[in-house]
């Protein structure tokens, strides 16, 4: 059997982590190709429902990343996001959603190497955890996959 | 409650208020909400230990608001809800008069919402022993066990949205579950959809829920959905300090501190 390749969805902010990921590319740093990056205007825009939907659609792991505190392009978006993440993470923990599979990080536009490291470590840890079967079973994902083609 | 009936009659006669919201005898051994608009109806008002419905859910309703100034028979959880609603600009002194019922069942009338706030702040929000025990039990489980617990508990939910209707904080004219573009939550009852709905509900109530248990009392299947909001209340206290609804409007999730502490962001 081929080795399990995890599907990772990354929700990143336009101003820091997206630019950081761009720098990773232009610096020719190689990193795992399991990640699908979705660009948001700000971490404050990253709705927790989107994270649930990512798992629903078959993601095995999620990365949420944006500007470091005090660096937000919109001054306070990441501060609001941080509060939301703190509460959402503890609610996930309480409902039994695997918090190991959601990685939160701050990656600035200058931290190309950090982005590669975040992705690589996340892919490695998710590979160890295996596919998120608990969630997929409840989401009835195999049937859905057929519908989406 | 003689005092309440007398006061309701006075208020209606003097046209100080147009409607008094209180409880009346319902079918069976249940009580239900009563909207007194005529003085003779005030005699139907009752108050006893069965009156646990959170009447604050009505003060944001358009049909009730348009009657004119309201007076509400408010127990402690109802008063807390009113303060929270006032901080969200849903009610104010011009459209609401609070006839408070103290935990000792005495009637006190408040001149304005500031007085209500002062009264409410004398009492801490406490989670009762039975639910505390349940929260501890869940905290000791493994993540997989908790997942199974919630999937099983929520599986029978058929999304009647009684929890939403009973909650004074769920006053949005268009709720996220009513959206179909995008369809955040599937309409039929599915295991995952039910979980998503209850996670969404708990998140929207974080920092706003005042722990009145109206959602649990309204649930026809007695699903312990109030545990989700209770856990949020406990965690909010742990992370951001003691929480009390206040007129200042500094809601937990709409404010932040630059030095909020967490230990999971890399």
Topology of helices and strands:
The complex is a heterodimer of chains A (149) and B (266).
Chain A: E1 8-13, H1 17-26, E2 35-40, H2 48-56, E3 61-66, H3 77-95, E4 102-106, H4 112-129, H5 133-139, H6 141-148
Chain B: H1 2-13, E1 19-25, E2 31-36, H2 62-65, E3 70-74, H3 76-87, E4 96-101, E5 107-109, H4 113-120, H5 129-140, H6 143-154, H7 162-166, H8 191-205, H9 214-218, H10 226-240
Helix pairs in contact in B: 3-4, 6-8
What features would you highlight for this structure?
heterodimer; A: 149 residues; alpha/beta; four-stranded parallel sheet; 6 helices; 4 strands; B: 266 residues; five-stranded mixed sheet; 10 helices; 5 strands; 10% strand; globular
Structural notes for this entry:
- The complex is a heterodimer of chains A (149) and B (266).
- Chain A has 149 residues and is of the alpha/beta class.
- Chain A has one domain: Rossmann fold.
- Chain A has helices spanning 17-26, 48-56, 77-95, 112-129, 133-139, 141-148; strands spanning 8-13, 35-40, 61-66, 102-106.
- Chain A has a four-stranded parallel β-sheet with strand order 2-1-3-4, with helices on both faces.
- In chain A, strand 3 (61-66), helix 3 (77-95) and strand 4 form a beta-alpha-beta unit.
- With 266 residues, chain B is of the alpha/beta class.
- Helix content of chain B is 38%, strand content 10%.
- Chain B contains ten helices and five strands.
- Chain B has helices spanning 2-13, 62-65, 76-87, 113-120, 129-140, 143-154, 162-166, 191-205, 214-218, 226-240, and strands spanning 19-25, 31-36, 70-74, 96-101, 107-109.
- A five-stranded mixed β-sheet of chain B has the order 2-1-3-4-5.
- In chain B, helix 3 (76-87) packs across helix 4 and helix 6 crosses helix 8 (191-205).
- The longest helix of chain B is centred in the C-terminal third of the chain and has 15 residues, at 191-205.
- Chain B is globular and about 60 Å long.
- The model of chain B has no long low-confidence stretch (mean pLDDT 91).
- Chain A binds chain B through residues 48-49, 52-53, 56, 69-70, 76, 79-80, 82-91, 93-99, 103-106, 118, 134-135, 138-140, and chain B through 138, 143-151, 176, 184, 190-192, 195-196, 199-200, 202-203, 206-207, 228, 231-232, 235-236, 239-240, 252-254, 256-258, 260, 262, 264-266.
